Amino acid sequence: MSRYQDEYEYEDDYAAGNQAGKSLKGYKVVVVLLAVILVAVSGLYFYQSHQQKAEYMAEKELLLGDMQVLSEDLSNLETTNVALGDSIIMQRNRTDSVMGALAKERSMNRATIRRYEKELGLMRTVMAGYIHTIDSLGRLNRRLIDENVGMRREITTERLRADMAEERASDADVKIRQGARVLARDMRLVLLNANDREVTRAARAKRLRVDFTLSANSLANPGNRPVWVRVTGPEGYVLANPSSATFDHEGDPLVYSAMREVDYQSSDLEASVFYSGGGITAGTYRVEVFMDGLMAGVTEILLR
Known about the structure:
Number of domains: 2
Largest sheet: 4 strands, antiparallel
Shape: flat
Number of helices: 4
């Protein structure tokens, strides 16, 4: 009876061991499958991430190409109107500045792409406005020429028509030169030491003073007006005010370097704005002046 009992117990142990081995193999299979799935998911994630970065960089190159074309188109615009010509130059400089900022972008994402697409759309709208204005002036000039040819036929009406044509041309020129926007000219960037004395080297400077003249404009509203100044250093960063405050520029918040209120009375007004923060080094600085939320002037200045 004992021998049979031992054989029975041996068979049970063998069956249990065989069952445990099968379970262990099953666990190993599950672990291997999970590892394979994890590797596949990780590979897919990295592939998609790489693919997305490549798409963003491709969109960046397309934007740069479109901005380059826009800059060249602005350079090819021709007009004899001085005020319109100055405005075109200012817009071309702005286009080149935005294009330079985009070229320096290293980490592209959807928000960055949309921001530059919006900027490009605004610049194209401005470009279309220039073309429309130039075409309008061209039609006006051609009409005046046709009228002058007709006026030569009758001496009696020649003077009257010439006066009327001259008045219309003068009115069109005044509207272009005297829009509501106030322009800033004679912009300077002055280095100051701790005693507010002018110095010639950036290494000795503690403050910056931005000097400019707000041009006369009879169509602009007189009174106290805030003026914002943005100073962008050689590294492409805006020298921000201590609180990093912003102002609204055509619907977008912009950090400014300094601001002050001026009493503008529709005539030439000289003004100065001071920046007292750090980060003053030698190099080329971009200075932008804004008034009424619109750009009044922009220039680049080399500090040694």
